[in-house]
Amino acid sequence: MFTFAADYFIMVTVASVGAIQFAAAHAGLRGLLFVGRASLARGLGVVLIIVGISLFFGTAERNLNDYEGGLDANAQAIFFFLGVLAGFGVTALVSTLLNLRMTGRDGAPTGGLDSLRDSNFAAALARSLGYWTRNWRTQTRRYFSG
Fold first, then answer.
1. Which residue has the higher pLDDT, 69 or 122?
2. Which of 11, 36, 40, 71 would bridge with 75, disulfide CB 3.0–4.6 Å?
3. Which whole number is the average pLDDT over 117-141?
4. For residue 109, is pLDDT > 70?
5. Angle, CA of 33, 35 and 41, to the nearest 5°
6. What does the alpha-carbon distance between residue 137 and residue 12 come to, in Å, rounded to a whole number?
7. Which residues, in sequence order, are CB contacts of 9 under 8 Å at separation 6+?
8. Cα–Cα distance between 106 and 57 in angstroms, integer?
9. pTM (2 decimals)?
10. Which of 70, 64, 30, 25 minimizes the C-alpha distance to 48?
11. Is pLDDT above 60 for 104?
C-alpha cells in the first residue's frame, strides 16, 4: 500500500505542477513560470500532466480495490490534498529561485495573484505581508467599529 500511495502522491504532485504552469501561463502570471515564454510554459504544463499520469498508470496495475492494496476514498483525498500542496510548494520555490530578478513595483501591493505578473512569489508575499502588518488597523476598521 505504501508504494501505491507514494506513486499516487508523486503523480498528483507532478500533474499539479503542470496544471499550475499551464494556468499561470494562460493568466500571464510570469512570476510563477519556470520558463520565460508563455507558450513554452503551457507546453511544459501539458507535458508534466501527461508524464505524471502516464508514469502512474503505465508502471503497474492500478485498478485495485482498497482491500486489495488500493487507496480508500479517505486516504485518496488526503494524498490528493498533500500532493497538490506539495505541487504548489515546488512551484513557488522553483519559480522564486528562477525569477529572483523579478521584484515588482514599489508601493501598495496589487490585489491577489495580480502581483505575480511582475514579481516572484517570495517578493510578492513579503510585500503583501509587510503592507498588511503596517496597515491592518485602517484596513479592518470598517468591520469592527460601531
1. 122
2. 71
3. 83
4. no
5. 70
6. 40
7. 79, 82, 83, 86
8. 47
9. 0.84
10. 25
11. yes
